[in-house]
UniProtKB/TrEMBL annotation:
InterPro entries: D-amino_acid_oxidase_CS, DAO, FAD-dep_OxRdtase. Belongs to the DAMOX/DASOX family. The chain crosses the membrane at residues 6-26. Residues 9-313 form the FAD dependent oxidoreductase domain. GO terms for molecular function: D-amino-acid oxidase activity; FAD binding. Its EC number is 1.4.3.3. Its cofactor is FAD. It catalyses: a D-alpha-amino acid + O2 + H2O = a 2-oxocarboxylate + H2O2 + NH4(+). This is D-amino-acid oxidase. Keywords: FAD, Flavoprotein, Membrane, Oxidoreductase, Transmembrane, Transmembrane helix. D-dopa binds at residues 215, 270, 297.
Amino acid sequence: MTGERGGEIVVVGGGVVGLTTAVVLAERGRRVRLWTRDPVEATTSAVAGALWWPYRIEPIALARVWALRSLEVYEELAARSGASGVRLVEGVLGETRLDEVDASLAERMPELRAATAGEYAGSGIRARLPLIDMPAHLPWLRERLAAAGGVVEARTVSGLAEADAPVVINCTGLAARELVPDPSVRPVRGQLVVVENPGIDTWLVSTDAAGEHAYMFPQPGGLVLGGTAEEDAWSLEPDPAAAEAIIRRCAALRPEIAGARVLEHRVGLRPTRPAVRLERDTLPDGRLLIHNYGHGGAGVTVAWGCAEEAARLVG
Ligand SMILES: Cc1cc2nc3c(=O)[nH]c(=O)nc-3n(C[C@H](O)[C@H](O)[C@H](O)COP(=O)(O)OP(=O)(O)OC[C@H]3O[C@@H](n4cnc5c(N)ncnc54)[C@H](O)[C@@H]3O)c2cc1C
């Protein structure tokens, strides 16, 4: 059956989750084809900032395991070369005390300590964490997949059963809402502004008194400023008022940002679900279907742990 179907496994979805899953499988000797509606550069994953951080997503205990495994991989990638787009960069998470960080995470987070008063006004923690330049990382994953014999095809499915392989892996993010169908997957819209970097080389995540987040990630293509989180908002159009507010909040933290030239506006819809869905299922004709979607605002953070778990579920 597998021969004439042209491949052992079809991964549907070419964002960070689909690409990483396909890489893990192909490097374990599986024949993998990856189908994607959008070029990898036009996925939600390409919008992300992207900082490795153990954001609280469900299921919390498993997400911690996936995040720590991914941390290990990103540390290895950062140590190797710049081509992967992964670097270890120091920065501060504001409004957080050291004793609030889960102990199992704290012992693994590189150079974790309380931020000094000079580093942050207020309580904050400082660490050296993976900062992933997604416009570089996604094409790098695609190349790594190709090097392992995997094939990327521009294909749009209207149902997962269209994938013509004995094993299908669903990494379609927000599109799983219609494809599964799974109405519990919902968008949380995020907007970012990329500005010319006025000389900032550490990342910063902060929350003001009104609960508004401001963050800045120094990436090779500019300083990425964020951000917004709007539930059930579907527009991919950048909102000029939101962009202005992002710049204002970031400039309140680092005044030199105020005059920085805007290079780009980015909008993405986080594929949010009450809990990540990573499990075995079957297609109507009995073929194995594995779901790996619903990673919300943490898909980059957990990608490698989830990919290895998906590969384990293939058997
Ligand atoms: C503003 C913003 C900032 C973020 N910052 C961070 C961060 O700092 N750290 C972090 O860990 N995460 C961050 N995230 C979250 C992260 O981007 C997501 O969790 C992650 O991108 C989800 O990846 P995915 O591969 O599941 O989905 P996607 O990237 O959306 O990929 C889905 C894939 O499915 C394909 N597809 C969809 N429908 C079909 C179809 N019918 N047929 C074929 N293919 C189909 C698409 O073309 C695409 O290839 C951020 C997100 C946003 C929006």
